Backbone:
């Protein structure tokens, strides 16, 4: 069995095969400030004030419009606070950060768990071997009531990545390269398992970066089996049996890539698979640079940017916006002197959260403006009508902010 | 479950913005949402004026691609559409349709079906009869689990009854 087959077999209580439709028991149900209010309304209209299936397994995170940007959002957030009190479920208010990262930091998920939530990138949890799925409001309302959700068991494809990475080439470049090869529907209705020395050497944040962009390939989930160090880092003492694929597991396809020659990559407007070498588009003038999001907002990401920004200034006329994924990341960035570097360089550093990943957040672009972002999507109109968004690594983003034009960090 | 109705024919890749334009996302009242069903398509005017409750949509491949908005299937269902037949559905649209109790079925040979024809669909067996042309087709029915949820009128009703 593949990893997803193993996890779904446990969660459904039956041995499953690809194509089966199953009910899986859920280990955690997450909703957020955006989407969550509609989940609560749906929930209450069907189930009144009935208790959720398990108050310890429902979590609310505020990560999108934080602190509340207008009255409607403020009212929605209060609706969730009230629901949390009534149902006695945990709520991580505006001073926490991105939900998926919070539940990892808080030890609320362990490898092999099945987790559902209202965000499209719940599947970044696959980076630590957790089966995370983003779903609609009806699904989450039902999940909260029953503690179960229905799934179609996907087939699995295997992606093997080998080779050492050049300086300034990291996890984001690797996943952009894979996206280029597989395309935005390359993993449709499928799970991915990532293997190979390049992946196995990766630390927690790099694994999350890889897993998060399985969404952009339309995949259900992408798994990286945690190493002993990852488990230790997470403070988890989990038996990995349930999340290691069997040697005779069946894969629909196997892709093998070598990344020794890989250069810094960049996804050009308006599709995450429109990927080129950074040098091919170097010199394009930018108006704004964003470093953050669930894909690249962790400490190692900020650190990579700080190494380039140290003692430098952001090009005049360019706005650099940096947003840590969580408060713990921000704290560490503070004690390690990163804020000093960022603020001296002229960056705007805001409170932890999703920030410039989607419309509705401060930092939106004017028509025709160009931004290099470390986030995961660059669909047309997502960050302002007529805006041009490029996706790249924190190092490429930092180099670009300093130069004011798209810049390969090796050429800084 | 047998569904009989008049056809509205649409092409390939009808995305969620065509089914339900993003500018109406703030609406929460379902009867209000219904007024904007298919408003982003080139048949918006006609659809709004001539739609009868019980009508059926027949479309090409990848129906409902785009965003995950549940408003898309909700608006179609509330507008009175009894079933959507398509060559294929986008994953999230399919899931959302099942969850809100909008019957859907996949069928390859939609080419011969004309706008305005009357179809009779057996959701369990997948047998689709064109009562106008007298031709019979076989569609791919949904899984048993999806059918149960659709028949219950959607996921939340299904779960409520199951408790
Ligand atoms: S950063 Fe964007 S994709 Fe990631 S969790 Fe937040 S809204 Fe979702």
Residues:
């Amino acid at each position: 069995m593949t990893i997803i087959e193993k996890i779904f077999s446990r969660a459904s209580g039956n041995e499953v095969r690809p194509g089966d439709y199953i009910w899986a028991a859920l280990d955690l149900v997450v909703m957020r400030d955006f989407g969550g209010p509609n989940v609560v309304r749906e929930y209450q209209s069907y189930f009144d004030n009935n208790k959720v299936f398990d108050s310890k397994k429902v979590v609310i995170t505020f990560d999108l419009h934080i602190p509340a940007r207008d009255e409607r959002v403020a009212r929605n957030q209060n609706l969730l606070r009230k629901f949390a009190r009534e149902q006695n479920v945990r709520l991580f208010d505006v001073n926490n950060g991105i939900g998926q990262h919070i539940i990892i930091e808080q030890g609320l998920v362990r490898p092999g768990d099945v987790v559902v939530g209202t965000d499209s990138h719940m599947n970044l949890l696959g980076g630590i071997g957790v089966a995370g799925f983003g779903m609609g409001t009806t699904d989450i309302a039902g999940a909260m009531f029953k503690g179960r959700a229905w799934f179609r068991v996907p087939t699995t494809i295997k992606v093997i990545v080998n080779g050492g990475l050049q300086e300034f080439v990291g996890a984001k470049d690797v996943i952009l390269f894979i996206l280029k090869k597989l395309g935005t529907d390359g993993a449709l209705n499928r799970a991915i398992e990532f293997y190979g020395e390049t992946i196995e050497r990766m630390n927690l944040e790099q694994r999350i970066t890889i897993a998060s962009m399985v969404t952009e390939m339309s995949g259900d989930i992408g798994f990286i089996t945690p190493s002993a160090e990852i488990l230790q880092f997470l403070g988890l003492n989990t038996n990995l049996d349930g999340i290691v694929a069997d040697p005779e597991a069946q894969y629909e396809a196997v892709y093998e890539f070598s990344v020794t020659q890989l250069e810094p990559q960049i996804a050009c407007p308006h599709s995450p698979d429109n990927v080129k070498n950074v040098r091919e588009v170097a010199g394009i003038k930018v108006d704004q640079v964003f470093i953050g999001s669930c894909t690249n907002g962790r400490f190692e990401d900020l650190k990579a940017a700080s190494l380039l920004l140290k003692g430098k200034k952001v090009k005049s006329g360019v706005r650099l916006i940096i947003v840590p994924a969580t408060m713990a990341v921000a704290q560490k960035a503070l004690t390690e002197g990163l804020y000093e570097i960022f603020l001296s360089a002229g960056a705007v550093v805001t409170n932890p959260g999703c920030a410039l990943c989607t419309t509705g957040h401060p930092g939106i672009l004017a028509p025709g403006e160009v931004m290099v972002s470390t986030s995961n999507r660059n669909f047309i109109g997502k960050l302002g009508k007529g805006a041009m968004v490029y996706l790249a690594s924190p190092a490429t983003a930092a180099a670009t902010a300093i130069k004011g034009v798209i810049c390969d960090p090796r050429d800084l | 479950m047998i569904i009989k109705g008049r056809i509205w024919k649409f092409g390939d890749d009808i995305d969620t913005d065509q089914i339900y334009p993003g500018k109406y996302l703030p609406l929460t009242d379902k009867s209000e949402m219904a007024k904007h069903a298919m408003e982003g398509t080139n048949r918006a005017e006609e659809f709004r004026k001539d739609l009868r409750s019980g009508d059926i949509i027949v479309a090409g491949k990848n129906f409902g691609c785009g965003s995950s908005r549940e408003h898309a299937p909700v608006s179609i269902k509330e507008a009175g559409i009894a079933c959507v037949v398509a060559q294929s559905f986008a994953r999230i649209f399919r899931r959302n349709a099942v969850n809100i109790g909008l019957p859907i079925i996949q069928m390859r040979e939609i080419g011969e079906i004309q706008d305005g024809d009357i179809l009779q669909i057996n959701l369990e067996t997948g047998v689709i009869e064109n009562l106008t042309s007298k031709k019979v087709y076989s569609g791919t029915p949904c899984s048993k689990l999806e059918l149960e949820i659709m028949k219950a009128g959607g996921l939340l009703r299904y779960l409520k009854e199951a408790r």
User: Anything to note?
Assistant: The CA atoms of residues 32 and 75 of chain B lie 8 Å apart. The mean pLDDT of chain B is 94. Chain B touches chain A through 22 residues (CB under 8 Å).
